[in-house]
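Problem 3 from the worked examples.
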Amino acid sequence: MKVSVLGAGPLTAPLSQLLTLAGSEVRAFDLSPDAPAEDHAAALHHAELIFLTVPGPRLAASLPSLRLGPEHRVIVCSRGPDEATGLWLSELVSLRTACLRVGALAGPLSPAEVQRGSPAAAIIASPFQDVRARAQAALHSPRCRVYTSDDLRGVELSASAARALTAAIGMSDAMGMGAGVRGLLLSRGLAELRRLGKAVGANPDTFVGLAGVGEVVAASAAADDAAYLAGRALLRGEADPHEEAIAVTAALVKLGARNKVDLPLLEAVNEVATGQRTAKEALKGLMERAAKLGGE
C-alpha cells in the first residue's frame, strides 16, 4: 500500500519505520512553512492513505497549505482537542479540508522503543470501515499489533487524556510522591475520563484499552516520554505551554467546563501549568477533597 507520512513530529520517523516493516510503500514529507509546495503535491499524489504526524497544537495552522480532497483517507496521529477552537483534531481535518474519511491513531507507540526494535501496539479509530481496514493493513506486522475501533471520539479523548495524566504522573514522580500516588492519579484520572466521555458520547470501555490506560502505563514508565518530561518540568516551573501534553490538558479542562463535568485532577495540572498554583499546593488540594461513595 502507498502511504504518506506528513509532518515533522516525534512519531514521523518511528511510524514510517513500522509502516515500512509492514510492507507499505512509505514516503515522509515535512509540512513546515519552508517545505517546497511540490512536496505537498507529491505527498497527496502518492498516497492511498495519509498519516498526519503534525503535533496537535500546530495542526490547525498546517491544514490550509495541505490540499486534501474527498478521495483522501487521513489518520490523525496527534492529540486534541484543539485549544483555540475546541474541535477534535479529526473534526479540524473534516471541517477545514475537503477530506471526507478521517481516523485517529493512538496507543503506546514510544518513538524511542520503536527505534530500538521493541514490539509495539496501536489502535486505529474511525467511523469508516475502509479507513480502519486500510490503516490496519498498512501498519500491522510481527513488530506492531494493530487493533481497530469505531469509537473515534472515545479514542481521541482517551489518547488526549493519557498525555495529560502522564504529565501529572511525571510531576508527582519529580516530587518523590511514590507508587501510591501514581496509582491514585491513574485511577482518579480514569474516573474523570469516564465522566467526560459519557458527556461527549464516547464508549466507556474505550478508556481501559490501549488508547487510555495502555498509553498512560507505557508512557509513565518511559523516562524519555515527552509528556512525562513535561510533567517533571512543571515542578520546576519550566514547562512549555505549547508542548502537546500541556496544551491538551488546557483544552480538556475547557471541554469539561463546557459540558459541566468536574475534572479536579486535570484542572490541578492546568493550574500548575498556568502558574495559578504550585505543584505542592495542587497535590495538597487533591488530597484534601472530600471522599465520596465509591471513591468518586
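Problem 4, a separate protein:
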Amino acid sequence: MTQTEVIIVGSGPTGLSCAIELKKVGIETLVFDKGCILNSIYNYPTHMTFFTTAEKLEIGGIPMTSMYEKPTRIEALKYYRRVAEYYQLRVRQYEKVEKILGDDGAFVVWTQDRFGREQAYGARKVILATGYYDQPNLLNVPGEDLPKVSHYYKEPHPFYDQDVAVVGGKNSAAIAALELYWAGARVTLIHRRAWLSDQIKYWIRPNLENRILSGEIKAYFNSWITEIRPDEIDVQTPEGKITLKNDFVLAMTGYHPDLEFLAGLGITLDPQTGRPYTDPETLESARKGIYLAGVVVAGVHTNEIFIENGRFHAHQIARAIARDLRGACR
C-alpha cells in the first residue's frame, strides 16, 4: 500500500494551494481528482472570463498574468498547470476517492480509477477540497434525465437554429442566453423569480434586459418547468400552464457540495445549512485528522467562498498539520 503524509481530495486551486503550502514546510502530499486536474475550471464555459482580477486567483506566490484586466478560463488553466509543474505536485487524475477508513494518523483512502480498478493509500492526514461544481441543483421534474437536458453550458455553436430553454436568472443563465441568441438559437429564459438577479455582472445585465424587452429573447418570470418531453416542455406561468416547442434545456440552476459524500465520511453537518462543523482556526472537521478547504466549508451557501478567499484556507490547514506532525508553527 502506497504511503504518504497527507492526501488531498480535489485538484482545484484550493486543493493545489493546500499541497503547495504543505510542501513548503516539508510535508509530503498526494492529490486525487475524479476528473482531470482543475476539473471544475475545465468544465466552465469555453470562453468564460473571471469576474475577479488575476492577482486574486494566485496561489503559491507565483504571479498570474493575463492579456486583459480579468483572466479567461484558458489563461487560468494554463496558470494553474504551470504552478503545479513548478512545485512538482503529485496529482493522480481520473481516480475517485470512494471511502476513507481508519483514524487520525493512520487513514486508509480507497480509490477507484476510470477502469474500475481499486487502490488503497495510507495517510496520516486528509484534506477535502472537493468543491461543488459537479453536483448540480436538479429541477426534479419528469424528463430531466433526457439527453437533451444539461446542467452545464460550454459554448453556443451546437444550438444554432434550435429551440433552447435556459432555466435560471443569474450569471450562468444570463451568459448562456446571450451567447445562444448571438449564435442563432431561439432562446427562452425561464426563471422562478420576478426578474433577473442583481448578482448578474454589470456589463452583461443591460444587454440581456434589452434582448428580453425587445422580445428577441422570450422570458417567463415567476415560472418553472413542470415536465420535459423530447420535442416540448411544459411551463407553469402566472397565467397557467403552457407548452413550448423545445429541442434543448440548459438548467443553469446552480450547484452544491456533495453533502452525502461528506456525511458518509463521518463529517458532521449542520442540518439546516449543510455546513460542516469545523474548527475555525484549523478547519479540522468533527472527524479528527480530516480537514476541509474551499467551498465545502460553506455548506449550501456556495456564494460565500470562491477561489479568491478559499485559497487562504491552505495556509490555515498547513499551519495546523505542520504543528501536529512536525511540532512546528509557521
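Solution to problem 4. The mean pLDDT is 94. The two ends are 31 Å apart (CA to CA).
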